[in-house]
Amino acid sequence: MSCLMVERCGEISFDSPDQNAKCVRMLGDARVRGQTGVVSERRGSYPFIDFRLLNNSALSGEVGTKKKVKRLLSFQRYFHASRLLRGIVPQASLYLLDEDYLGQARHMLSKVGMWDFDIFLFDRLTNGNSLVTLLCHLFNVHGLIHHFQLDMVTLHRFFVMVQDDYHSQNPYHNAVHAADVTQAMHCYLREPKLANFLTPSDIMLGLLAAAAHDVDHPGVNQPFLIKTKHHLASLYQNVSVLENHHWRSTIGMLRESRLLAHLPKEVTQDIEQQLGSLILATDINRQNEFLIRLKSHLDNQDLRLEDAQDRHFMLQIALKCADICNPCRVWDLSKQWSERVCEEFYRQGDLEQKFELEISPLCNQQKDTVPSIQIGFMTYIVEPLFERWAQFTGNTPLSENMLNHLRRNKAKWRSLLHRQHSSSRSNDHSGQVTGSQEQTLNEEETP
Question: What integer best gives the mean pLDDT of the chain?
Answer without folding.
Answer: 82
